[in-house]
Amino acid sequence: MNKIITIEWRGDHVVMIDQRKLPHEEIYVKLYSYEEVAQAIETMVIRGAPAIGVAAAMGVALGIQKSSSKDAPSLKQDFLNIYERLYRTRPTAVNLRWGLERMKNCFENSLELSIPELKQALEKEAIQIYEEDVEINKKMGANGKHLIQNNSKVMTYCNTGTLATAGYGTALGVIRAAYEESKKFLVYVCETRPFLQGLRLTSWELYKEGIPQKVISDNMAGSLMAKGEVSAIFVGADRIAKNGDAANKIGTYSLSVLAKYHTIPFYVVAPTSTIDLKCPTGREIPIEERSPKEVTHVGGKLVGLENVDVYNPSFDVTPHELITAIITEKGVFDSLSRRLSSLL
Amino acid sequence: MNKIITIEWRGDHVVMIDQRKLPHEEIYVKLYSYEEVAQAIETMVIRGAPAIGVAAAMGVALGIQKSSSKDAPSLKQDFLNIYERLYRTRPTAVNLRWGLERMKNCFENSLELSIPELKQALEKEAIQIYEEDVEINKKMGANGKHLIQNNSKVMTYCNTGTLATAGYGTALGVIRAAYEESKKFLVYVCETRPFLQGLRLTSWELYKEGIPQKVISDNMAGSLMAKGEVSAIFVGADRIAKNGDAANKIGTYSLSVLAKYHTIPFYVVAPTSTIDLKCPTGREIPIEERSPKEVTHVGGKLVGLENVDVYNPSFDVTPHELITAIITEKGVFDSLSRRLSSLL
Predict the structure, then answer these.
(1) Which sequence positions of B are flagged as catalytic?
(2) Most buried one in A279, B14, B321, B331, CB count within 10 A?
(3) Are A133 and A157 contained in the same domain?
(4) Count of domains forming chain A
(5) Catalytic residue among A238, A245, A276, A316
(6) Structural domain contains residue A2
(7) Domain range for residue B148?
(8) ipTM, 2 decimals?
């Protein structure tokens, strides 16, 4: 398998694979400024909650590195501008804010240092966030892999793999971990309209690993469940509220209702950095609405009417009562509202 | 509004709008042989259960008209070849077989006639089936329109309009009839992957009528229901079993489960020619599986991996217990298993 580089720090720039071009073109882009990183997040060159957390942190490190400010107050102003710009890129995934918050703490704790040392401290922190993410994903894989039975069929949604993280993946990390144990199973990959992260990204990752898969349109999921073809469902999350409600890619909620109706376990796999204790319930999670063109155009090509009204929320909220358990790097939590707050 | 011609008899040929090219190109194709009609059904130049019933009937009339057989026995052999060819085109919609059966009865009842008279009788029968379909659709519209409230929001799936019938539509006919009564409502149009009949066809029909709409990806339906945004759901059917189970476009089953969970009425609108009393339950309805390319390619463009495994059933079955009522030209039936068999 060729190693996939979702994002990597390269001293004076950041490298990312352009996920909009996958699976047909493996194009790596080099970003030399925080503004380029912010645009890459907005336009979904990079996506996936943990991955954009890492990208935002690296964006901060890059912005500060390139700053020509000569004293702490003006560097602090630069920091705030960079922080604000990156903060505004996407509203739903809390990992992005979590990454920015860690960089802010690092910045504030480094104000005693010389400017070159402070720049180095931020660079180190961003790399640390990156490295920790890979480790956290592997732990989630280890914590969840027993939930995939040998000779079973599982379903996954959107992309939660290497491309959604610094590496390995969250829900796809659990699938990867079970496969590494030589378990045999089939993965049903929901294509995940409108951006087709399942069809384009998850399918590509599974293909590279040799994990057996079948791609389906999202609307086929219920019919497969009714036929007894789905043993368990694994999805990621972009933000988990204090009560265990989880925001994830639009369509996750429908899957969770279908899973409930067919008595199929429904697992959310996410690092604890996805948990937002300031959000009491899913109702307080901001849901991003994206361009109608994502629905009317596919692969850049207009398929529907040009100016038709479209509703295109990028996420929905699955209430905790429809989630069998949340798998984190700190363990598997199945009694969500009571246990989550004790985690952090 | 420009009149849409789904299919029309033109003396020595049949005209159809090529539905694969919509909404961007309104191209009418002329078909001069039954083989061309069969291929048009297979490749979805024309689709929709009632429409392909009409197409098959016209295909038979065309085939017999073009036959050079000089006596009844060889004409009968031609008839059987034509019948068999058209019968094999698509397996799920029973209306196709119903249309062929009517043509068969007409043929058998016309064996006393001269060959030119027999050809004329078949032509007349095909035109009759076409004209009846428009009338039947208008009756269904009248029977169902009270189920759409003023200032409400309804949801529809796939395309069940003029393009799916000889004219007017089944589920979309009910929506059209309510709109003709000056009711105000919004239609949520599910795009209906993989062939995108909602995004491409229903959206175009509603646009031509000026009926307010919002297009969504299929996976957004559940989230809208959870928000209280959907008052009722109207779908078509390709075959209804004796017990009231209904086969319809893949994804209908998922919608029906979501509707049940959110206590939203779920209506199937279909002519009685869709009811197949020889099928005791939905389990006996044959489900067509179509090319993986419908999922991996959109608008002719490869979006996913070229040779990835895909599951692409064209239909699924909604069990009668998830259907609030079936709206037919003979009335609205809400106690399905008991009432349907009394209909025919």
Answers:
(1) 238
(2) B14
(3) no
(4) 2
(5) A238
(6) no
(7) 143-343
(8) 0.95
- Measure the CA–CA gap between B78 and B84, rounded to whole angstroms: 10
Residue of A19, A185, A220, A264 best to disrupt the B interface, most CBs of B under 10 A: A220
- Does residue A238 have an active-site annotation? yes
Tell me whether residue B101 is in a domain.
yes
Q: Is the residue at A1 inside a domain?
A: no
Yes or no: say if B153 and B233 are a contact pair by the CB < 8 Å rule: no
Q: Model confidence over A292-315: pLDDT tens digits?
A: 999 999 888 899 999 999 999 999
Q: Is A85 on the interface with B (CB under 8 A)?
A: no
Q: What is the CATH number of the domain that holds B261?
A: 3.40.50.10470
CB contact (8 A) between residue A207 and residue B305: yes
Say if residue A1's pLDDT is above 80. no
| Pairing, β A185-190 against β A213-216 | parallel
Of A191, A296, A303, the CB nearest to B295: A191
Instruction: Kindly identify which residue of chain B lies nearest to residue A312, measuring between CA atoms.
Output: B216
CATH number of the domain where residue A84 is located:
1.20.120.420
Q: Which residues of B touch A216 (CB under 8 A)?
A: 295, 310-312
pLDDT at B343: 60
The whole-angstrom distance between A314's CA and the closest CA on chain B is 9
pTM of the predicted structure, to 2 decimals: 0.96
Chain A residue numbers with beta carbons less than 8 Å from the beta carbon of B201 are: none
The pLDDT of residue A304 is 95
Sequence letter at residue B157: Y
Under 8 Å between Cβ of A53 and A273: yes
Pull the structure tokens for residue B116.
Answer: 């030119």
Do residues B305 and A24 make contact, with C-beta atoms less than 8 angstroms apart? no
- Which two tokens mark A301? 């090509």
Among candidate residues B149, B303, B319, the one with its CA nearest the CA of residue B240 = B319
pLDDT digits (tens, 9 = 90+) for B241-254: 999 999 999 999 99
Per the model's pLDDT, the better-predicted residue between B336 and B146 turns out to be B146
Tokens representing residue B107 in the block: 């043929």
B223–A304 C-beta distance less than 8 A: no
Q: What is the mean pLDDT of residues B150-178?
A: 98
Q: For B332, which DSSP code?
A: E
